[in-house]
């Protein structure tokens, strides 16, 4: 199966049945991202989304120092943040920027749109894009050495690939979101845990990855119809009224409840054995 | 007054002036729900909603073992989860499922639509439907022995009578919601308190019910115009922009502020005595 | 600069470069608000919003006893809560109430619409309107002696100048919001911190104000393009879907990213010195 | 089948296979509505909605003079519009009015929520409630003698059971809607046709009813899975963004496309014969 | 009464009881607008909105040649469209432009927010801002010589004070809106009538103004509670789902139905005489 | 330039400066679509969207008989509408259908998302997908021989690639939309013109294409900043409240108004010559 995936800037392995492990692999530059990387990331999650062999995914960063230090600022100053040499017209520059930002956002949103649950294990520097990227995932774990920051205001800009749109809906503490986003200050693992940005803190990076893998393995052991429906319905409900959430759930489950997974799961429950589910 | 209520699967009592106590009463089956029960529950809350003698409501479960173990899976496999014998056409099955799920949702939503505040006191097993039901209430208390789970993925389905639509708007920790909903794992009273799913944890079931009753009694002692308006405006605001919330509040209060309760409340405040309010 | 501001019910000072300090100044009446005060407050924040010399703002209350005890109930019973002597027609009274409530809301909303971040430092009695007002700000700090209450139901009405619309989107604990709003009970600094209503608790009022000033000073030291964009994008995202948030961010940043602040910030980062930004 | 329906204020017949005809039957009072009538109407359409023998419905009014003259004002002045004798408190009156208006709206909305298409054939006086009621249906036909009016402002109130919410989404001429709703002026069949409120005008009431029946019969001859899905998807799309409409359509059709009706319809098309579809 | 109004760029008269006539008064420049004019227009409609002597309003343009030729382009090139001399930073220019456009929009939106119905009578050149302005009104009439254009693309910009947001919701012909907005082509009275942009076409300007006055007089003769409620409920419904429209209507009418206007209107109907209503 | 485009199922030419002509090219099968065609269509419009040489686009169909007869039903019965051989589980089939429908929708939505205006010229059979496709465009023209139908219910399904979501927002006659969508009946050019589905009817296909080309040429002669902004702002406004539309417009124009196109356009206006605009 792994043969189908040949990313250049990420390692991809399959440590457990139905579980993929995506590792950001540019450790010498603190896993900082440049354009080719986020495009590849988008492609990768689009592919994982419909791969029948995959039921859950974890993301981590290679090397000891950083999950990712965020945007590779040097590359960006020659790209996204460069003055647009094609034109001096601010309106035309704006058009080019809109296309670039929109394309960048789509790559990160691929994690949220991925039909399977995604668990992120962070460590070390987890700055800027680290927050955007992990906010698009479902569950966040980290090592106790993790140093987070919504770093963008420090380089003169408002974060624009997801943090400002998703973070207020992930942690229920709007004052804290304002605090960290308006100051770009560092915060640690304990603070991230307290406000609910991460769900668990581990002693080391290795343990965080192991913990994420265990969680992903547990999710992968359940009915994929049930798990993937649950991810979708939670994301939909986040953005709609309770009534629209209930109605969409009804329509969704009018097909999903016809699955044989229900019988498999019920039977396995009675027989106290691990169910198996048809591939999806 | 109690004469008007003759539920079959619930006990209803009036332990304090203006306070109703609804008890799920199927303790031998861990208060598990089958269709006739949720239909009765819906009717009961529709009736309580406009009963002038009632200003707040508490819900608890009979017996020592469970608030409710959720759906009666055995009954459901012959009902909601049964293969639809009337047709083999998946689209027609979907129509029947839509109607059944929609009807079921309406019964649970009756708690949310009930004009009076509803406080739930949980204990023991509080699985699946327990989360859907209590998420439709206003405040949740529990005993320290409570064992919660968003259990649905374990029977092959995505929760569809409210948990996935309401839980993300009740607790401000989307990662935790994803975690418990995608794994179906058990969680205890302390965890529920920490993430804000319950507001208080008590030593025993009896104390939890007593605590809920005290809270409900306090709410029932306030102006019913003010209290019922507050419940409605908070629920509306949850589902709308701040601006739409403010506007709706303006329209609502343009009638509500004309109440004599304001004078009664102000006067009682000055005279340091308990106000009484015209029935509603 | 201060010459332009001559409020009657507030003190305004500029304790740090680019930082304004607004102090509610009616300490003899526990800083309770009457109509002329909230109108002045609205004007003040509209003016601060576009003042190029101001990049962040703190609000506190004069005197030792209260940030504000809320609405001056005595004044209100002759104004907003007075029976409307112009007419006995409930529909016409409703029209007058709509206009008054709407006008009142606009004054408080001026804090939210103010383009610069606003940090509130509370102490002592912080009742009713204190919650409405501080909920419209970005970050809330308090002294440990602060006594909060969503006091409105105690005077027979549902809070209508912002608390019920904003509080559920500030703290991610809807059960707690229901609890305090439906009972009007007092809660203290520690509880406010635990649920995320305030971000930090200080030993004394003076320290809280000092803390707020430090935070505001830090925000004022960053690129105003980045900071003001971040405030706006977070507030927009709170009220829209993630997708609408991302799109709005794209459009916003298509102009904002053309700022020279990005180069200034990047260069200062490399040169390890404090950047300066053109006034805005 | 007709045996199941025993309405008191309506006639119900089944003039064609799968087509029900509901006739408002109070011709001596110009088919004016009082409370028991709209409650019965609501029940009737809820029942028709899930009756497998029914695939489309027409509504008309008995007698020569009126489809319906609207609210029976005399009955209403003792009911909905009566001064509320139970209380003098405007806020409590408002609660009672809210419940009554809400209940009334639900009865009319039952036509919109009915899963099958509803065609209305109007004639003669079609005032006030006639507009509310027919706006909740799918297609409107009328005789050339029809006299329409959004009559409510003439009795001192804003229309509140659907006209003001639905009419602007039915006819794409907001100025015309404002004109007729703000003046209560009469308008005739030709004007109704020109602005798109009705789809066809017939010489006589009998022809209008016949035309409606032919349209309903045509709709009833198509796949009920396709027809009922189309009604629902159009109503959903009216109230949502194009993107939410597309997504909801995807989820809906993921079950609906599995129907054997597709094969039946395709085969009938090839064989040039009338398809038959399993009952729904 | 007229004494209270002293506009500089508009004439204001009261040709009928409860009816105000606002005339754009810069005929020598084809009634073209510059900044001071739209600010005055906003103030004027805010004042009219709560003037108890006014129940409906008409707007027309002085002189024979134009209702308004739109933006005074010469003035604009030194103002709104001038290059911003205060800064060369495109992001800072964007901030200034945002404030200016937003302020301009608020002035036009004052017509829509005005609680009383507004009828516009157009003639001659009615370009650019003429469309923005009249789209914010309730009903549009015109003389047959009127020449309309959504003129903005011809001066290199997308219309930004209302046309693009309101026109698609006024006329139900999105292709036509795209056509005229993307080409800036002229269109005449007959075309405007056909697509529903205007409701009636008159031979001359004088007749158009007379027709508008008759319509406004009719509206002013009805219960102001009913009329103003109807305007508000239609505008709210345009922007919300049918369900949110129905709910808002319920809340609104729970106060409005308590008016004595209902009894006055009913009684007048029975007695066949013109009702009078308490001032509002 | 044409060298960059090598579509297989479409012809692409550039009949005027800045204008592209896309012709559906499968005349022997009435231009019926199969999967490879809509995928290519999506790619084509994504490419045109950012091609600086293109400022407007027209679409027509090759051959005399049809713009397009819609879905190639034969191909579809082996593809989208085929029973899913990979699984018998209805829930898994639903997942596969969701992915296929979603992918199909994206291809059609590419026309709407294309930054440049798109004009469609239809003739002959214009069934099913013809309506979906043309509804995603900006302006629709047709020859008088055109035969339209929302054909989907005739093959047992609800239209799912755009018609049901877009048509109610294009034509302001919801009853007509219901009529044609629930009956699948044919309608002609005159009816399409009357309800506003098409903007103009021509004698022949050739004239329709010529008319479309003239319109597109006119649009291409205007400032591309203004034209593309206008398309985007109209589409955004269709799906949002007026207030959100106004706000988005403000943000958009805060960059767009900085264009030198404004000066070019103003100057050309004064000098009575055709402006030229920098490429975009």
Explain briefly what this protein structure is.
The structure is a homohexamer of 280-residue chains. By secondary structure, chain A is of the alpha/beta class. Chain A has helices at 35-49, 73-77, 90-113, 129-135, 163-170, 174-183, 189-195, 205-220, 224-238, 242-256, 261-271; strands at residues 10-16, 19-24, 56-61, 66-68, 118-122, 125-127, 139-143, 147-149, 187-188, 200-202.
Q: CATH top level of the largest domain in chain A?
A: Alpha Beta
From the N-terminal CA to the C-terminal CA of chain A, the straight-line distance is 15 Å
Enumerate how many helices of chain A there are, as a single number.
Answer: 11
Q: What number is the mean pLDDT of chain A?
A: 96
- Tell how many strands the DSSP assignment of chain A holds: 10
Give the ordered list of helices and strands of chain A. Answer: EEHEEHHEEHEEHHEHEHHHH
Oligomeric description of these chains: homohexamer
Q: Rg of chain A from C-alpha positions?
A: 20 Å
* Total domain count of chain A: 2
How large a portion of the residues of chain A is in β-strands, by DSSP E? 15-25%
Query: CATH superfamily assignment of the largest domain in chain A?
Result: 2-enoyl-CoA Hydratase, Chain A, domain 1
Largest beta-sheet details of chain A: 6 strands, mixed
Largest interface (CB within 8 Å) is between:
A-B, 53 and 50 residues
